[in-house]
Amino acid sequence: MALKIRLQKNGRRHRPLYRIVVAEASARRDGKFVEVLGNYNPSPQGKEEPLTARLERIDYWIGVGAQPTDTVRGLIRQVRALKKISRESSAAAV
Q1: What's the CATH code, domain 3-93?
Q2: Which of 72, 78, 89, 92 would bridge with 68, disulfide CB 3.0–4.6 Å?
Q3: pTM above 0.70, yes or no
Q4: 13-67, pLDDT tens digit by residue?
Q5: Which of 79, 81, 12, 3 is CA-nearest to residue 39?
């Protein structure tokens, strides 16, 4: 049972939304999944969050052996960078 952390497409035509999910490698893109780990909106409008992810669960699944796809690996890096920036700015404000 090989697990992958990958994107699952939702939304509508010309306005995609993606979920970051853990799924078996043999499952279809929009098929069965084990757990939802976050969301990715490639074209947010207004105050919508472009990227949300639960890093503690992502770290757990990677520790168990799940392999993130290249795209998800890049998104995880972005989330980590955003959290680091927000921690530094909140520490500077205090």
Answers
A1: 3.30.1320.10
A2: 72
A3: yes
A4: 999 999 999 999 999 988 899 999 999 999 999 998 999 999 999 999 999 999 9
A5: 79
